[in-house]
Amino acid sequence: MHRIGLLGCGNIGEIIAHKREGFIITALYDAVYARAVAMQDVCGAPAYESFDEFLAQDMDIVVEAASVAAVEAHAEAILLAGKDLVTLSVGALTDDQFRNRLKACATQTGKKIYIPSGAIAGLDNLKVCQIAEVSKILLRTTKNPHSLGIETDSPTLLFQGTARDCIRRYPKNINVAVAIELASGHETEVELWADPNTDRNTHELFIEGEFGDITIKVSNRPSPENPATSYLAALSVLSLLRNLDNPIQIGT
Ligand SMILES: NC(=O)c1ccc[n+]([C@@H]2O[C@H](COP(=O)([O-])OP(=O)(O)OC[C@H]3O[C@@H](n4cnc5c(N)ncnc54)[C@H](O)[C@@H]3O)[C@@H](O)[C@H]2O)c1
């Protein structure tokens, strides 16, 4: 059974801790120590105030559900300590140099970096774009203005441009765009809309390639505790962990 260190005890971390099955959580860490402490009763794992102490515990995988900054600060140490990394804050990997450093660390220790599907679907077959001709990849994301921390009375286009620029401006909201870009190996255009008429986080993905067209629409129910986050993202980590050792790997 996998032994998991949980880095980030916020909304997604809490769902993972509550719904854990098929793995054990052995250590908890959060920049806000009280949040890790509050999670001790949920999963029976101890909270650590020091990241180094956390990392020294008995675990084979660190699940990151914290922030882009947490990945930037800790991912190299995690891999060099001989742990696999499951990371939701995939926006950190837009920086080519940083991503290549992480790859080198993982290769050195024989470990892996897993990027779950998160709040989108279809990352499995988007990897065909690495070998096929593609003329367009567009992600249109629509959220309620409150989950973006703004006020507006009508649907408003907040951002139009590349995934890389979008994640710099909205590091908490557009990790899916980076996941799409990494899976497809192609620059991804992004439109980010704030719409007061919706309570869903909706991702519409349009791809045109030599194989035909792909259209994917995922309409996520936001988590009640954190409207910026999708419940689907937490479930995708749980399903990744559940299927890690399955001899039959589907849609990889
Ligand atoms: N890939 C996806 O599809 C997807 C979907 C949803 C959320 N996310 C990302 O997952 C992450 C977690 O989301 P959430 O909704 O649980 O957020 P949250 O704000 O509810 O919880 C994050 C927790 O991590 C802690 N944290 C932040 N920075 C830290 C650091 N440097 N070191 C240690 N702890 C730190 C915070 O104190 C907080 O308790 C976010 O980065 C979010 O953008 C990705």
| Overall morphology | globular
In sequence order, what are the helices and strands, one letter per element? EHEHEHEHEHEHEEHHEEEH
Biggest pleated-sheet summary? 6 strands, parallel
**Tally of separate helices:** 9
Radius of gyration: 18 Å
Strand content: 25-35%
CATH class of the largest domain: Alpha Beta
Class based on secondary structure composition and strand pairing: alpha/beta
- State the separation between the terminal residues, measured CA to CA: 21 Å
In CATH, what is the homologous superfamily of the largest domain? NAD(P)-binding Rossmann-like Domain
What is the second-level CATH architecture of the largest domain?
A: 3-Layer(aba) Sandwich
Overall pLDDT confidence: 94
Verbal overview:
The protein has 252 residues and is of the alpha/beta class. The protein folds into two domains: 128 residues, Rossmann fold (3-Layer(aba) Sandwich); 103 residues, 2-Layer Sandwich (Dihydrodipicolinate Reductase, domain 2). It contains nine helices and eleven strands. The strands form two sheets. Strands 3-2-1-4-5-6 form a six-stranded parallel sheet. Helix 7 packs antiparallel against helix 8. The chain starts with a strand and ends in a 9-residue tail after the last helix. Nicotinamide-adenine-dinucleotide binds next to helix 1, helix 4 and helix 8.
